[in-house]
Amino acid sequence: MMGTKPLPAYTSSSSPDILPPPPPPPLEDYSPESPTCGYGIGFTDQYKLGETLGTGNFSVVREALHKPSGQRYAIKCIKKGGLSNDELEALTTEVAVLKQPENLLLTSKMDDASIKLADFGFAKRVDMHDEGLKTACGTPGYVAPEILESRPYGKSVDIWSIGVITYILLCGYPPFHDDNHHALFRKIKQGQFEFDAPYWDAISDDAKHFIGQMLVVDNKLRY
């Protein structure tokens, strides 16, 4: 399953000091046997894949050149073979949502307006004295241990997610990753992650400390 997004005027290839993420599994593991771009057009007839831009728990993002237009895109390739029927249905829904960018907000109608990202589908106001939320929700790889353990949770789960996002922004791949859901959740519950060399060699100790304080299993010690 593949989705495309236009790339900005620069990519990681223009920044020689930024190291690429760990090599992903072979591309054929992430795409159908005969991928098409709609209307019966073969994917390889339309796009030429380039370098890996990032990896996730169940997907890899590759740079690609759209042959007819010369436009560069970021293409997300998802390993459909390892997904359950429910996950495939959720994936189909996600693709449909991507065709309606209601989460992209503009600060004005001017051409140079700033873009704001907004997604408050699960947002809820939480008071200091609340016993905590109990709804199990979130994206695998980003959710805090207490959610996976079905324990009441509060604002500290957002701190955990910010830690995951910060980790990804600095190295290009997630701190917790595994093709198997059970193994992935076990790593999250144990807070099992590393600052792998050479991808983190150029990252400051302050940044690592910042992430380490957020990815703490004990939510009372998380900040």
UniProtKB/TrEMBL annotation:
GO function terms (MF aspect): ATP binding; protein kinase activity
Domain Protein kinase: 1-223
Keywords noted in UniProt: ATP-binding, Nucleotide-binding
Keyword field contains Nucleotide-binding: yes
Domain of life assignment: Eukaryota
Gene3D superfamilies: Phosphorylase Kinase, domain 1 (3.30.200.20), Transferase(Phosphotransferase) domain 1 (1.10.510.10)
Compositional bias per record (Pro residues), positions renumbered to this chain: 18-27
Residues given in the record as ATP binding sites: K80
Disordered: annotated segments: 1-35
Keyword DNA-binding in annotation: no
Identification of the protein by name: Protein kinase domain-containing protein
Organism: Aphanomyces astaci (Crayfish plague agent)
Pfam family, one: Pkinase
